[in-house]
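Final report, Chapter 2: Outcomes

The project's central promise was a pipeline that accepts a single protein chain and returns its three-dimensional structure in a standardized token representation, suitable for archiving and comparison. That pipeline is now operational. To close this chapter, we reproduce one record exactly as it appears in the project archive, with the input sequence first and the structure output second.
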Amino acid sequence: MDTHITTLDQFDTEYTADSVEWCPNPGYTSLLVCGTYQLNSHTPDSSGPQKKGRVYLFQVSEKKLHLLQTIECAAVLDQKWNEKSDVPTLTVALESGFISIYTIDNDKEPLLVWKEDVQIATNGLALSIDLLASRTLVSDSLGKISLLDNGTVTENWKAHDFEAWITVFDKWDETRVWSGGDDTKLKVWDLRCLPSAALTSRKHSMGVCSFHSNPYKEHVMASGSYDEHVFIWDTRQMKSPVTDTHIGGGVWRLKWSPHNGDFLLAAGMHNGFSVLDCKVYSQNDQPIIAQYTEHKSLAYGSDWSHGEELGLIASCSFYDHLLHLWKLSI
């Protein structure tokens, strides 16, 4: 497949950048957020290093990033939009152990308005978020998973021995939840049978830090790990992954392409951003059809635009604190 990558714009986030999410809600797909995480040095009046962050709200028009808003907050670990809400709603995972919930006020121009904070972890960091209608999943640095309904914690259980880097809903089965931890374990949970795991896999050899359930193709889940491998699973048969692709860097985030779920975007930390062709599953590894290496630091946050133009991508990198907007022709 012939592919071509064009960098369209970039923005200096000042703080180290680690999270990018495009808004999926109809009428708002030109909006994206970028989250940052900054570790300050010791100060005379502090007991240790202090962390802080920002949420940047952008609107993309004419293939350029236009900054609409900057929100000062605790350091940001993850962000998710609720695609099922009538008004776009953003939930942000913070190092303070809280999640912050914002809605879009579109009175004159779209701006984020704070709605509420919910404490998830005491003496821990909120690490990842996933949303499904009124429900929210949050993983934390204490190895726990929290399930919320309409902002209220309904379940909280110990899932991993160390950091629970990632947790997601199965988009095709509302009773099933996935999690990955620094203990190298991939776990599947039946919400009706907590706190025992329905399945535990040790196929990854290092910490499991990313999942994405394919919303267009049933029984398809992607997982990624610090071991630099992307696994694609058939959720009906979990003995071994269907395919195993080595991307040359720890896999911090995975995103299926909107509209079809045919391509998989992988943030590969030390090896940039890769796009895997997943229209057909191979017996070995999936073809890597493109690699974006314009970032000069750790590749962390990445996402596809949910607008009509397929292949519009935003990505961010850590130490060089840059947000990039780029176009992949596929």
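Archive annotation: The mean pLDDT is 93.
This record, like all others produced under the grant, will remain available to the consortium after the project formally closes.
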